[in-house]
Amino acid sequence: MATADGLRRSVKGLSEAELRERFGTEEACREALFDVRWREGLTCPACGGRSFCRLRTRELFQCNRCKRQVRLTAGTVFQDTKLPLTVWFAAIHHLTRGKGGISSIELGRRLGVEQGTAWLVKHKLMRAMAAREATKPKLEGRVEVDDAHLGGERPGGERGRGAAGKTPVVAAVETTAERKPKRLRLTVVRGLRKGEVEKIAKRDFAPGSTVVSDGLSCWPAVEKAGCEHFPIVTGSGKRAASWTPFRWVDTTLGNLKTAIAGTYHHVSAKHAQRSYLTSFAHRFDRRFRLDSILERLAWAAMRTAPQPYRVITADA
Ligand SMILES: [Zn+2]
C-alpha cells in the first residue's frame, strides 16, 4: 500500500484492465471464491474430513473419507447460476465502483446480458451487501443524525420536511471527535416521529453514544436507547445558512439524492431501504478501501444464502 500504484488503487478501485487481468477467466474467479470460502481449508460437512479431491474443475470437491461432494458455490448467492463467474465478478466490479450505483439497463449493457438478468444479479448482490451490513457493530461515540426526503428536490435549499409524496429518511453518521465521518446508516422511516427515532437508536446506536442533531422534536427519543442527546439549534436566516453543523451530512445526503435521482426514476420506500440505501451506506463505509471492495463483496456473497428470484421479487 506504500507504492503510488497501491495508493491510487485504494482510492479509485480496480481499472477495467486490472479487472480482466485478475478475474478474467473462470479459473481465476473460482480460485478467488475458493480462497474466500475455504481459506483455512475445506472441512467435510458430513464427516468432518479434511481431505478432498477435486472433480472436474475447482467447482466440485469430493471427501476422500465419505465421498460426500461439495460444490464451491452451494449455499451461496452464486448457487445454481447459469452465468459465468467472470460475469458475476464484472457485476461486482461495476456495482461497487461508482457512488451512484448503476441501473440494471446500464449493467446489462456492460455485462453483455439481458436487462432482466442484470436486474436479478444486481439484486442478489445487493442482498449480500445488506446481509453484511446487518452484522456490523452499532454506531458509537459521536453520532450525527439528520433527516432527508427521497423523491424530490428541496426547493431553495430549505430544510423541507414531510413534503407530500416524498420518502423520509434518517441519516446517522458516526464521526470522529473532529467531526470527520466514519460510518453511515440510512433508514427509511414512516415519518419523523419519536417512535421511529427510538427504534433506529435501539437498533443502530451503542448505549452511551452522543447523538448530535438539530432542534427537531423527534430526536430526543434517542435517550430511550441510552444515548446522550445534544441538540444544536441552528436558528434561521443568513447565519444559519452559512454556519451549518450538518454540512457534511448534507453533502452525504446530497450525493445520495443525486445518485438515486440520476440512476433510478422511481424508487419505492421498501425498495429504497432494501437495496439502494443499504448499498450506498456499504460503499460509503468502504470509501477508503476501494482496492479490496470487490473481494469484500465476493466474501459477503459467499456467506449469504441463495436469494432466489421469488424472494427478491416478493418485496421489490
Ligand atoms: Zn466426508
Portion in strands? 5-15%
Secondary-structure class: alpha/beta
Q: Give the low-pLDDT segments.
A: 1-11, 153-164, 237-244
* Shape assignment: elongated
Rg, Å, rounded: 22 Å
Keywords:
43% helix; alpha/beta; five-stranded mixed sheet; 316 residues; three-stranded antiparallel sheet; 8 strands; elongated; binds zinc ion
Overall description:
The chain has twelve helices and eight strands. It has 316 residues and is α/β, with parallel strands linked by helices. Strand 5 and strand 6 (181-188) form a beta hairpin. Helix 4 crosses helix 6 (115-134), helix 5 (104-111) crosses helix 6 and helix 6 (115-134) packs across helix 11. The radius of gyration is 22 Å and the shape is elongated. The model is unreliable at 1-11, 153-164 and 237-244 (pLDDT under 50). Bound molecules: zinc ion. Zinc ion binds next to loops.
List the helices and strands and how they pair.
Layout: H1 4-12, H2 16-23, H3 26-38, E1 52-55, E2 60-63, E3 69-71, H4 85-97, H5 104-111, H6 115-134, E4 142-150, E5 167-175, E6 181-188, H7 194-204, E7 210-213, E8 228-231, H8 238-242, H9 247-263, H10 269-285, H11 293-302, H12 309-314
Parallel strand pairs: 4-7, 7-8
Antiparallel strand pairs: 1-2, 2-3, 4-5, 5-6
This protein binds zinc ion.
